[in-house]
Amino acid sequence: MSVQVEKLEKSMAKLTIEVDAAEFDSAVNKAYRKNKSKISLPGFRKGKAPRAMIEKMYGASIFYEDAANMIIPDAYESAAEESGLVIVAQPEISVEQVEKGEPFIFTATVAVKPEVTLGEYKGIEVEKQSVEVTQEDVDEAIERVRESNSRMITADDRETQDGDTVIIDFDGYCDGEPFEGGKAEDYSLVLGSHSFIDTFEEQLIGKRV
Question: What is the pLDDT of residue 209?
């Protein structure tokens, strides 16, 4: 196997990977063994037809797709390592040559880690930023943690209060006509979150199911 590297614009590169003919023919033979049980040929029991007879009947390329799928992953991995590139995304594969008795050639277009040239940085002074954490910041952080670790319980014996989570069905109308997105069932709403317009949530406080 051999690989050629072509660097492209915008941190892209193209690897041209060539697999020798004997290795590709071996993959074709594996593809034949994998698929022969599905192929019927006059004069042969199903799955017993020789590869040469199948290729003569259906064309030499009948097993090429499976063979390519067997060859490409390992060949690409080896070529990527040999290239020395720092590849940061999945490749775009394109088969360039697949012919009987010839090397199998495909390309892999890849995104690579950008090359960065540092300017002069020695002697640059950076002002240290001081951060003051207030008690209010601490209280807010604790409240967020408390809410994220809380669990809901059903309150059956009291009226709804600000901060409660209620499950509602609603239909919205504009000038007496329903509008898109204005209807929902089993909608979870936190009273006081101001998720709805005007005083909608306030009207739900003090209610019982």
Answer: 67
Q: Are residues 12 and 107 in the same domain?
A: yes
Q: Tens of pLDDT along 97-137?
A: 999 899 999 999 999 998 878 778 788 888 888 888 898 88
Q: In what order do the strands lie in the sheet with 92-97?
A: 2-8, 12-19, 104-111, 92-97
- Are residues 183 and 102 part of one domain? no
Q: Say yes or no: 166 and 102 in one domain.
A: no
| Reduced 3-state DSSP string for 184-204 | EEEEEEECCCCCCCCCCCHHH
The first and second tokens of residue 135, run together, are: 């008690």
Determine how many CB atoms are found less than 10 A away from the CB of residue 88.
11
Number of structural domains (the chain) is 2
pLDDT at 74: 94
Write the DSSP string, the chain.
-EEEEEEETTTEEEEEEEE-HHHHHHHHHHHHHHHGGG--BTTB-TT---HHHHHHHH-GGGGHHHHHHHHHHHHHHHHHHHHT--B-S--EEEEEE--TTS-EEEEEEEEBPPP------TT---PPPP-PPPHHHHHHHHHHHHHHT-------SS---TT-EEEEEEEEEETTEEEEEEEEEEEEEETTS--SSTTTTGGGTT---
